[in-house]
Amino acid sequence: MAVRHYTLDINLSTPVDSTSVVPGLLSIFHEQELSETIHDTNGHGYLATFVGKNGRLVVLRVHSHGLVTIDLQCHEDDNIAQLDNLLNALEKKLKVLLNGNITRIKRLPVLVRGAKVDRYWPTADGRLVEYDIDEVVYEEDSAYQNIKILHSRQYGNILVLDGDVNLAESDLAYTQAITGNGRENYAGKEVLILGGGDGGILAELVKQKPKMVTMVEIDQKVIDGCKMYMRRTCGNTLDKLRGDCYQILIEDCVPLLKKYVQEGRTFDYVINDLTAIPISTSPEEDSMWEFLRLILDLSVRVLHPKGKYFTQGNSVNLKEALSLYEEQLGRLSCPVDFRKEVVCVPSYLEQYPLFLPPPTMGLNDDMQINMS
Length: 372
Prior knowledge:
Blueprint: E1 3-12, H1 22-31, E2 34-39, E3 46-52, E4 57-63, E5 67-75, H2 80-97, E6 102-106, E7 111-113, E8 120-122, E9 128-130, E10 133-141, E11 146-152, E12 156-161, E13 164-168, H3 172-178, E14 190-195, H4 200-206, E15 212-217, H5 220-229, H6 231-234, E16 246-250, H7 253-263, E17 267-273, H8 287-301, E18 303-311, H9 319-329, E19 336-337, E20 339-345, E21 350-356, E22 367-371
Parallel strand pairs: 14-15, 14-17, 15-16, 17-18, 18-22, 19-22
Antiparallel strand pairs: 1-5, 1-6, 1-7, 2-3, 3-4, 4-5, 8-9, 10-11, 11-12, 12-13, 20-21
Helix pairs in contact: 1-2, 7-8
């Protein structure tokens, strides 16, 4: 059974003593049959808990720096009207007791913790987002990751891998950005997709009649879920592993890239949809940075001399990590050119950077990097 968590915060212009606040609230708690326990805070304000027979728990704190907080927890099936009445009564009484001293009153939307359907997922820069998720339509644990596809009333079905929101059916903007925002001509070209198990990039590319698209996805279970529940993203491209102008290889891309290097195989485009730029700002110590550098190096070596490389970035707020990535680009075995653009991906609820070739630059013997 889930737990509902209510909050009420009162910011004050000047600190108050608990004796001017707490006695006036006790009658409200007692009316709800909540028993009080006062806790020692070692001089850091007032702290009391109130417990009811029906499992309700209220935590009241009068902080020494001018803040009063009330937290209320209850079972999911508790009487919501009674809880709203309790919080309304406490807020009304506090306005009287603290008249003229209040700078802000804030009640957050109720948090539902431990629910069967998890609606809370973090953004790349660590902010908490509550989605309008009402159903888990697919969940599997593969040898590589936990795979969920969740239904959102606003964004359609959302692919979540190991707790990270990857792509929703609403997120065509992401797919368009990582393939060049319509500025590239893929007709008759050889394209290599690294990852991309949701099928979105593949579905967009095959519309342009490329010579051949090779998609390398390590996790069959991602494809299994997406071909059933992400149809607005992938269409029918994941229904079979080979089509007129594409093939899907279920394997680790690193050994395959090394094999292509040995064979001298090259592509006009390499699109890396494997992983975002790591949040860590210690690239010499973080294994994800090592993996990113390995993929960059191998991708450069399988690119046609006039080829282009596209990859995703991370939240625009992670400026230091993005700057470190640019440093990695400067250390490649050949010179590269790129420019920055920003794309808003609907279900991410944050801006993502896009690195593109300068608009006036013609093709030359340098790799050009697009990064969404």
